[in-house]
Amino acid sequence: MSLLDQYFLINAPDGLPVLTGSYDPLLVTLSLAIAIGASYMALALAAAARRSTSALMERLHLITGSASLGFGIWSMHFIGMLAFELPSHVHYHPLVTALSALPSLVASWLTLSLLARRELTRSRLLAGGMAVGAGIGAMHYLGMAAMDLSPTLRYDPLLFTLSIVVAVLLGTLALWISFGLRRQARWRGSKRRLLAGTVMGLAIAGMHYTAMEAARFIGEPAADFVAGSGRHTNLALVIAAITVGLSLFAAGVNAVARYRGLMYRSQATASELRAIIDAAVDGIIKISDRGVILSFNESAERIFGYRADEAIGQNVSMLMPSPHRDEHDRYLNHYLQTGERHIIGSGREVWAVHRDGHKIPVRLAIGESRLGGQSTFVGFVTDISERHRMETDLRRSKEQAEQAAEAKSAFLANMSHEIRTPMNAIIGFTDLVLGSQLTDDQAKHLGTVRTSAKSLLALLNDILDTAKLDGGHTSLETRDFSLRSVCEQLLATQSLNAQHKGLTLQLDYQADDYFQGDPLRVQQVVLNLFSNAVKFTQAGYVKLRVRQSGDNPVVIDIEDTGIGIPEDRLDKIFDPFVQADASTTRRFGGTGLGTTIARQLTELMGGRISVSSVPQKGTRFRIALPLKPGSTDVSELDPEQETPLPPLTILVADDVKENLELLRALLTQRGHTVVTATNGKDALQRFGAHDVDLVLMDVQMPELNGHQATRALRTMEARLGRSRTPVIALTAGVLEQDQRNALAAGMDAFAVKPLSLPKLSAEIARLLDLPAVPAASQTPCPAPAELVNRQVLHQLWPSAASHRHAVGNCLRKACHFLDRLSELDASEALSEAHRLKGMAGNLGLIRLVSALDDLEHEIRQERPVTPHRVHQLQAQLDQITQWLADHAHEANESGPASVGVQAVDDQRLSAMIDQLRRGELPDQAFAQLRAGLPADCADAVSEALDNFDTECAADLLAAFRDTLEERSC
């Protein structure tokens, strides 16, 4: 007999019957339940092994799970065998039956080892499924071999193979389900394990009952066999109970081990939490739902002064001040009943009570923990005493700073009044005396007094402007104005200083003409920067460029070729009293407030200002102003021109005698009738006795001040039924509050001392509704349209004959240059044109300077000189020739000026110019040279030295030296 015939039914013997058996449904169901339960338990322990943090616990879970699954598979098989009844007596070999459990244990170990992994590859899945199927098959057929019965046991080869395939496929399916369902949210935990355990239990049972179908029992039934006698229900139940007991034991062992692990981790976590709580900077207090303190950490002990054993068991209200202490329990009960949160879940700053009774500021945050329907609360307390102290100090410092600012404003107002009041008399009486018959020396000295007073006033205005801007006391007006006119006026005001230095002033205007804004503030910003550019530029040009693109801000650039600003000083250039370096103030003069005021005013108008510079090459300031389009209906008035007024009766009230005398003299000269009063009470009497057209009311006076007098005056007008008389406040106060106070008292306008007659006359004309005179009808300032600048002529050439002689020499040189222009190369032509331009500037020949500047620009562009340019220059020379012919009949002058010129030592003059170029003030050397200088030249140099403008003084003396050289020629 072959080996196959020994185990498999290949050729069935003839005449031998095949016995058929039956199954007990109860035991079959029990076997399925055992298989599914063991699988579920094994999967649960595999999941526990996967979550284990220690190797020991992982092994424990795998061993107990493998034992539970292995014995469950064996029990299912044995109960399934007991459920099968043959018409023959069946016995089981004990040793072989016991050994049949080994394959199931090995298969269970392999299965759980795979399930304990976090990921499962396809190859491992197939290998695991085959191992599980082979183990279950081996266990089954080894258990079948333990049967001792009289019939012969053979297997159908096809069903035998099918049983192994079923075991492998279902085992693989169970593994796949267990892993695949981990990523499904609705198949997590016990649901997934139950499904996978059911599939695995069916795989075990499916293999068993498929294998049972493959078994063929060949032989005769036992003669003494009684139906039902072969059932072993009780034995199956005992085996099932033992298997369940083993599973429960395994679960208990794992539960105990896991509980110990959880206890260990819980103790470690509790220890860590205790360490964290004790080390926390904040106080941490835990209370019950009745407000009783349950824990009190070390920081809470430090904050409140209580020891933990003193605080625990007490009501937390002991840490609160009244009235919160009395209301705390009510707050807590209200929250527990209604759930309305006021403090819980949010932080706030409150006061707490220290053990010694003093209050401490704390920040409190409260959280709630609810367990088993009971609430406990944890409070986090931060001691903010230091921050509270800092905030209190900051608040006190802020109040002190505000008080200091108010004191500063008051000081500035008083200083303004005290300085402007005498300056009003100084400047006013100086102007008044200068209008009378004076000797040359008297006029010169009074001119020096007036210039010095105006310089002092300009310095005072800069300081007050900065103070007002810092204090937020500066307001802006909005009206239509011509930006082009503002720019052209700026160039005109700086033209003389630029001509002294031989600088070219350029205006590149590419924007609309009319805008809305504050023209005086715009002019102040641009003038401060433009005058600085002229001051700090020794050669080259200063350019004012205006650009506008659509609705973008108007961009104003001031470019120069001056000394520049070092890079490390750029970020400080807008600070008060700061200049490029320490020597700049001495060399060029000034306070360093111009750029500060420009920045403050620009930002006040909503704009921005920036600067870029290269030392020794030049600087560019850029101003961007958000100006709105304005109307073209703009009446431009010359601020230096008085507005003509008809004869008026004017009441002037001032307690300073000098001010009254000055105003009486100035107004009387202009045809007005002046009524004076020395205080407010006297002013009311004069007002009642005279029919006046206007009142000039000083603010600070005895008896009644200006505000009180004006209020009384308005009451008198109402009582007498008189029409409203305009009242102009006279004050040296310059703050916005001063203006508001004046208007609130019933005054109509505001005039600041020292008084400006053009501004005062314009204000009177406005109040009396008189027509204003446009600037076009007034006498214009020297402009480029004038052939000879009279201001330069008066300042540098007191001798008309000497000036005409020097003009003749310049004319001859210019004609000779023009004749040779076509023969000269570019560098020679440029040098000669530049020299002639400087000479013409010193002579006041403005048109010739402009023509030579155009020629110089054309040569620099490396373009050929056009016939038009030559014709333009020739036309200027012809006009100068005609001017000389027109003035030839004037008598020659040989006064003291010419004598003085001959007495000047050239070497000492050159040495003094060099000293001035270095920023020195050679007062003694100038005193020795002054007697030999023309009077007007000496006065101009003296004024420049008084203003610390050494560069301007050097330019004036250099121009005078050039005239000496011309005369020697």
What's the total number of strands? Answer: 25
Structural class: alpha+beta
Shape: elongated
Strand content: 5-15%
Regions with little confidence, pLDDT below 50 for 5+ residues: 577-591, 773-785, 891-902
Number of helices: 33
Output the strand order for the largest sheet. Answer: 9-8-12-11-10
Distance between the termini: 154 Å
Q: How large, in whole angstroms, is the Cα Rg?
A: 56 Å
Helical fraction equals: 55-70%
Largest sheet: 5 strands, antiparallel
- Indicate the mean pLDDT: 75
Please give a structural write-up.
With about 950 residues, the protein is of the alpha+beta class. Among the domains are: about 25-260, no CATH class; about 280-385, PAS domain (Beta-Lactamase); about 475-630, Heat Shock Protein 90 (2-Layer Sandwich), CATH 3.30.565; about 895-969, no CATH class. The chain is about 60% helix and about 15% strand. The strands form seven sheets. Strands 9-8-12-11-10 form a five-stranded antiparallel β-sheet. Helix 6 crosses helix 7, helix 14 packs across helix 18 and helix 26 runs antiparallel to helix 27 (about 845-860). It is elongated, with a radius of gyration of 56 Å. About 35% of the residues are buried.
